[in-house]
Amino acid sequence: MKYSGPRLISLAIFPLILLVTTAFGQQAKPQTPTEKQVDDVVRVNTALVQTDVTVVDKRGRFVEGLNSDQFELRIDAQVQPIASFERVAAGSAKEAQQLSRDANGKPQSAPGERTDRGQTRGRVIFFFVDDVHLASDSMARARGGLLRFVNKQMAAGDRVAILSTSGQIGFLQQLTDNKAVLREAIDRLHLKRGNESTSMKVPISEVDANLVANHRDTKLFSYLVDAVKNEFQTDAFNAALIVRSRIRQINAESRMVEVQTLYGLHGLLRSTAQLPGRKLVFFISDGFIVDDRKSNAADVLREVVKEAARVGAVVYTMDTRASFSDPAVDATRNDFLDFSSRQGGRLIAESRMPQEPLETLADETGGRSFLNPNVFDEALARAIEETSNYYLLAWRPDNENQRNGKSRIDLVVKGRPDLRVRMRRNSFDFTAGPNAKPISIPNRLTAGKTPDEELLGALASLYPRRELPTSLSVGYLHTPETGTSLNVSMEIDDALGFDPSNEKKETAVDVLGIALDDRGMFSSFKQRLNVTREAMLATNDHRVQWNQSMPLPAGLYQVRVAVRDRETGRVGSALQWIEVPEISANGASISSIFVGERRGGDPISAPKPPIKVNRVFDRSSRLRYLAYAYNATQAAAPGGPAIELKVLRDGEAVRGIPVTEPVSASVGNSKTVSLSGEIDLAGLTAGIYTLQISLTEKTGKTGVAQQVDFVIR
């Protein structure tokens, strides 16, 4: 079967592209590829090859403190010297630099990648739900496990995507840190496993069909024929015809579905190539049959493994099947019981054959397979913990096979047989990824795209474009007069180009923005900014910031913004999800929390600072916040709401920092209260934090809360 591309990702992004092109009345022309696609596993730097390694003890805990002298690296069974070795923290700001090295092993920065955005970038986690292979009870377990992960295990700064083989999640199967989006995506997961259209009671599974058709299991075939004879009271000839017909049907359907699953996973992996750092992918399935005698699924599986190596993804597989009994001796499922040897090994085959591709996929990509559905939550926690840190080693290839990534790699810790080394079986090169390449604007423009099409393409990009670093902060507000609206704050840094011959030293920036939901509803805006060098340099961080208001009803929205510098042709984009609640006159609610920064030298009476769009703060500064409580009595009034402010890290309240109670004041009417204050950040270490404001009405005993994440560098 010819591979026609990642159907899964196409399903995810097609509605977005359609909405964006409809909103602005334009349609991008197809772009002719300017580079030859590489068919090898990876493109390997001729001077340096990298291998990522996880070392765990018997309890599955990452082993700290190892050095290169403790490892023995073998390439095609030959000992190979280790050229460089270091520990990497997954999700750290430094990870992308450590993974992108030049021929001499020196770290490189990706275009648009800034190193001043805090010490933590957050983990990137994908859940690929193989819904076409999940039974109803397995789907329930998968949904429950994913929901518990989102509610209890997902940390601040994590970006998570939930995708499915069938594409039924649609527009929501994108990376996000918004838990409301992920909960909605989980809610859309429903049974997609095809039920065989037959009135027969004799159970014939995918494993049975494969054993009979492709491995000539005559004893099993004889049993199935006898069972059909008993059910239909027919002769052996007609019973055999019925059995063969069902087996052909089952094999034809399973061939199509298993290849669809692997192509979908391949498409997901390929789409992550532009993301920096190592990616963690959970593949959730009841398993399926990969057999060379049945289909080309084994070849596709090998391509999936190669793609995982190319993009730096580690795959953990999870079998969601519960324990089951042999249908041949289960009176609740079969009217023709058989205790003879004709079905010897059938139960074992039912258990093991669907698990084999799951084990292969995990082992070949450096992950791990979890085959017990009773430890779903524990498996997720263990996998995330053991992949939070890893070792990165590099070696120099000696021949063409090693340069092409076709060599077998083996690694052991000397004298420590108690330690388990998990590593991918193919080498990779992160410097071959798009993030490590300089962007050639003239080449893209000569490929047939107009500037407007470039801007539109950035707006519809699956992941943010970083040639022109762009930040976005979206919050909602409500007033009785105008209703609910989004406050969209945008920012670009000092990467703008200024023509030296321009006496005014100014440049123009084109801006496109859109807020859309999965129902096809959207609101859009188009702007042009005239930016002078003098105005940009007058700001503390040499950044350009502007705002846009978008009136919208309650709903779940994705806001996207794309910018293009007319002088250099560089483009950038950013996106953010936001849930706008229904503001009821009968219940209290809180707006989004807006944060700004007051630096150490600024007096407390200084004018209100602008919104901190990227929410990255210096430890020497103070965080100022502002939110509005709706339909709440004033805090100072008798019976007013109790207001509590907390700073959280990893879900736990941070102690010992000076946090003043929010100052409340009525705004326009007694039912809208502003909540403002500031926090001294000097006592906090670098990392990702969450600011939480909660409000409890003393009269109605109802509570609401709002959160916003921020980073300290």
Give me the secondary-structure topology.
Elements (H helix, E strand, L loop, with lengths): L6 H18 L24 E8 L14 E5 L2 E2 L4 E6 L5 H5 L24 E6 L6 H18 L5 E6 L14 H9 L18 H10 L2 H15 L3 H36 L7 E7 L11 H15 L1 E7 L26 H7 L3 H9 L4 E2 L5 H11 L2 E7 L4 H4 L5 E5 L6 E4 L17 H5 L5 H9 L10 E10 L3 E10 L13 E11 L5 E11 H5 L6 E8 L3 E11 L5 E10 L8 E2 L3 E5 L17 E2 L4 E9 L11 E8 L2 E2 L9 E5 L1 E12 L6 E10 L6 E10 L1
Parallel strand pairs: 5-6, 5-7, 7-8, 8-9, 22-29
Antiparallel strand pairs: 1-10, 1-12, 2-3, 2-11, 4-10, 13-14, 14-17, 15-16, 15-18, 18-19, 20-23, 21-23, 23-27, 24-25, 24-28, 26-27, 28-29
Helix pairs in contact: 3-4, 3-11, 5-7, 6-7, 7-8
What can you tell me about this protein's structure?
By secondary structure, the chain is an alpha+beta fold. The protein folds into four domains: 1-37 and 438-583, Immunoglobulin-like, CATH 2.60.40.10; 45-109 and 389-436, Immunoglobulin-like (Sandwich), CATH 2.60.40; 124-386, von Willebrand factor, type A domain (Rossmann fold, 3-Layer(aba) Sandwich), CATH 3.40.50.410; 585-713, Immunoglobulins (Immunoglobulin-like), CATH 2.60.40. It has 15 helices and 29 strands. The protein has a five-stranded parallel beta sheet, with helices on both faces.
